[in-house]
Design goal:
Elements (H helix, E strand, L loop, with lengths): L3 E7 L1 H10 L9 H9 L4 E6 L1 H10 L3 H12 L4 E6 L12 H13 L4 E4 L7 H12 L3 E7 L13 H13 L6 E5 L7 H14 L5 E5 L7 H11 L3 E4 L13 H7 L5 E3 L3 H14 L23 H13 L6 H14 L9 H15 L7 H8 L11 H11 L8 H6 L6 H11 L5 H18 L17 E3 L5 E6 L2 E8 L2 E4 L2 E4 L6 E2 L4 E5 L5 E6 L4 E6 L6 E2 L4 E7 L2 E6 L4 E6 L6 E2 L4 E5 L1
Parallel strand pairs: 1-8, 1-9, 2-3, 3-4, 4-5, 5-6, 6-7, 7-8
Antiparallel strand pairs: 10-11, 11-12, 12-13, 13-14, 15-16, 16-17, 17-24, 18-20, 18-23, 19-22, 20-21, 22-24
Helix pairs in contact: 1-12, 2-11, 5-6, 5-19, 7-8, 8-9, 13-14, 14-15, 15-16, 18-19
């Protein structure tokens, strides 16, 4: 009897990068590995979308459309190149208007993509109808997706075979056009039995010959077993990756799954010796990239706090950058309650980021003292209908803090009325920045807003974590007190003169003094002119994105002084007291540490 050939998609160059390196990889670095993978017989690759649209812009200073063009040129016309889209959110954390959703599909087709996997984290089919139609109308293959996860202990009401069967029925009833169906468990927390039963029921529901694919991660240690359950239930294909971006937080390894199928009725249609060679090439390509230890490990606690592999390392890397990685165990533990009270949206982008942000806030600021914008809007209905009703008290707190009323209106209808969204808004951003209004630029501006404009203006910085030899700070010039300092591979000439610092000749005010922290981001010190000068300190590490006040301004208690960004969230820094601003020690774009003085008020 012939063995059933299981189709594979190699996710190394999209989800693998996101799961291990936070998607921060220069595209030309991996081209030799992609060529080697082609020689092994792999004909289907995930190469873009999701974080691999944002990260090239935000961290690699690379154009994702140019990347897609170069990949298509490398692989030729016949290879299936796939990307990831988040329903009405397309490739961002924010949902979009119809014109932007259609432009997304148009641009990805124009730049050589074959297939778009399209999912909604809430499994709200209303978020898939228009986006799916746009994918098909623009000549792409549409892989409609049901998102999965395991619920924390003691929870029920969703994320079981009955629930997934209902979601698939809703997709079929909505008559969404599709070419294949995927079941995507981004956190790797579904039980193998749930996977088996779900795929088995789907096989009976779908038209004969429909391709069913299963996707998961090894984060919780059960990925391979779930893959076996999926193909036993009737799946035709699975997602796999190559070392060094396989296993751990990423997909199971191609070689590992090939081995798991030996002696069974299933086989992978690949040349295993050439896959082995390709993995060696890939490891060589990535040898200079920092490999975070948590990316290569299995964490059984993820079963109780479903954190996707694709988000885990991105978040831990940001925590490293912000000096709060020691809080990670507390944040993961806090996620359990956040998921329980949030309505059971699937822990996959953007909802996984909402969960993590809220858990982070609960740890840093105290339980439910600060509602993360995304999490709050989710429980209030602004991203669609959650699988179950969120906790009533949390909904009330979110409404009060965000000053929004709960809604049951369709997301796409809300967005159509939003004056801050759409192609017209993107064109205005480009016009104000003096940039050409090409379709590519319009989509980048619409999906990435200010960060997209910064990239298009040529002002983006590079923040890719490579293992570079450490450089000692050294004096430059002729003993003039200027030092060369290297931070994240970027070199700066720094000169200190009293309370002034000159960084690449730009002047900054600095202040070093002792004070008593009151635990609320403020402290008092004596002032030479008499009286108390109150210091407002950063509650956490991050980047200053806007400074609202200037020296001499009179402020009231709770006046917003500046806005910081950390962990993909913007936090308003408010004055704990009334008075006059005597010093502003932070500028837009500054990286600040927790406890650093930002503003002085007397």
């Amino acid at each position: 009897m012939s063995r059933k050939k299981i189709k594979i998609m190699d996710t190394s160059f999209r989800d693998g990068f996101q799961s291990v390196y936070g998607a921060r990889v220069f595209y030309r670095d991996f081209f030799p590995a992609l060529e080697a993978a082609l020689k092994s017989g792999i004909t289907h690759f995930e190469v873009g979308g999701g974080a691999r649209f944002q990260s090239p812009l935000f961290y690699c200073n690379e154009d994702p459309f140019e990347m897609m063009d170069e990949i298509r040129k490398l692989v030729g016309p016949d290879i299936n190149l796939q990307t990831l889209a988040r329903g009405v959110n397309v490739v961002g954390l924010e949902s979009q208007t119809k014109d932007v959703i259609n432009l997304h599909a148009k641009m990805f087709k124009k730049h050589g993509m074959t297939t778009i996997r399209n999912f909604d984290a809430l499994n709200d089919v209303n978020n898939l109808i228009y986006s799916g139609q746009c994918i098909k109308d623009n000549g792409l293959k549409h892989e409609v997706t049901v998102t999965m996860m395991g619920l924390p202990l003691g929870c029920e009401g969703a994320h079981d075979p009955d629930f997934y069967e209902k979601v698939l029925k809703n997709i079929l009833d909505a008559k969404i056009p599709f070419d294949s169906v995927a079941f995507k468990d981004a956190s790797g927390t579904s039980t193998p039995q749930t996977v088996y039963e779900t795929v088995k029921r789907a096989r009976k529901m779908l038209p004969a010959g429909t391709h069913i694919r299963f996707h998961s991660h090894e984060t919780a240690g059960t990925g391979l077993r779930m893959y076996l359950a999926a193909i036993e239930g009737g799946a035709d294909g699975v997602d796999l990756a190559m070392k060094p971006v396989s296993g751990g937080t990423s997909q199971p390894d191609i070689i590992s799954f090939w081995h798991a199928l030996r002696g069974t009725d299933y086989d992978l249609d690949i040349d295993i010796q050439k896959v082995i060679e390709a993995e060696e090439v890939f490891k060589s390509c990535m040898k200079d990239y920092f490999l975070p230890p948590e990316a290569t490990t299995v964490d059984p606690m993820i079963v109780f706090s479903p954190m996707p592999g694709g988000a885990l390392t991105a978040n831990t890397q940001m925590m490293r950058d912000n000096g709060v990685l020691d809080k990670y165990p507390e944040v993961i533990k806090a996620m359990t309650e956040v998921v329980k009270k949030g309505g059971f949206g699937t822990s996959v982008t953007p909802v996984s980021q909402f969960y993590f942000q809220q858990a982070f806030n609960n740890v840093i600021f105290g339980p439910w003292k600060k509602i993360a914008d995304g999490y709050g809007k989710m429980v209030l209905g602004y991203f669609g209908k959650t699988p179950c009703t969120p906790d009533a008290e949390i909904v009330k707190i979110a409404a009060e803090q965000l000053k929004l009323e709960p809604t049951t209106e369709k997301v796409i209808d809300i967005n159509e009325k939003d004056p801050k969204k759409g192609i017209a808004v993107a064109k205005k951003l480009l016009e104000d920045a003096g940039l050409p209004q090409t379709e590519e630029n319009i989509f980048i501006a619409a999906a990435c807003k200010d960060k997209g404009i910064t990239f298009l203006k040529g002002e983006a910085t590079t923040n890719v974590r490579k293992n570079m030899p450490k450089k000692e700070d050294k004096k430059v010039g002729n003993g003039n007190g200027v030092y060369e300092v290297t931070v994240n591979e970027n070199s700066y000439n720094v000169k200190l003169e009293g309370d002034k610092a000159f960084v690449n000749s730009k002047e900054y005010s600095i202040s070093v003094k002792e004070g008593t922290d009151d635990g609320k981001g403020a402290s008092s010190t004596s002032n030479a002119s008499g009286g108390a000068e109150n210091e407002v300190k950063a509650p956490l590490a991050g980047t200053v994105v806007n400074v609202i006040v200037k020296e001499g301004d009179t402020v009231s208690k709770d006046t917003v002084l500046l806005v910081m960004e950390a962990m993909k969230m913007e936090t308003e820094i408010k004055s704990p007291f009334a008075g006059k601003v005597t010093k502003v020690l932070a500028s837009k774009g500054n990286q600040v540490s927790a406890g650093q003085v930002l503003v002085c008020i007397k």
